[in-house]
Request: fold
Amino acid sequence: MDARLRWKTRFFLILVILTQPVGNLALTLGMKHRPLSTPLDYLLAIFSPYVALGIVFLVVWLLSRMALLSWADMSYVLPLTAVGYIANAILGRFVLQERISSTRWSGTLLIVAGTVLVGMTPPRTASGRQP
Amino acid sequence: MRAWILVGIVVAATVAGDALQSFEMKRQGEVHIRGGRLGSVAAALATNKYLILAIFCMAVSFFAFITLLSQSDLSFAVPASAGSFVLETVLARFLLGEQVDFRRWVGAALVAGGVALLAV
Reply:
């Protein structure tokens, strides 16, 4: 992988990792305890300020991830973006005041350990596969 | 129990959407970010049936996810949906033909272990 592609990959990875937790936080703030019994409730929910903001962040996340997937392996990109799971847990604990048990922290850390291990593998393994 | 059913819907729809997305974006080739061509690339991708199907799957995943967030903690909902990585690694190997080496399999197994701990 040349230097240009390496920097492009890093830039898009950072974008993908940061936008998801922030988007999820905004979604949670907008959705918490919201009654959802009819399709109209869902429609009203997605146009509420926090949920709309969350959707904007998640659209940026989706587009940057789609671009990343066009040159890097899915099995490299997707687990690596799970580094954002730590950020989600921290936001849940300190912004949303959620009680996170030691078992839940252990589970989250195990997921991060898995992502780090995957990050040690090369991003593209199937050379010459593209049409 | 209802929360885990929602997690199951999120995972299944995410896996289907990601696999379709990766398959089609690889088929299209590497995206080059240049102002003039970006519009035509976006237009071509927006009419692609695999990507439309992928977006439908992601919409299903999204609505299941916000329903989950309305009744569960963020610190549960997000890691629980990581179960998709395990299925995705299997699909990447057998459907997309990616070479998933030993470390990636162990990484996926650790993610699976982490999700299992959330269920305790």
Notes: Chain A touches chain B through 59 residues (CB under 8 Å). The two ends of chain A are 18 Å apart (CA to CA).
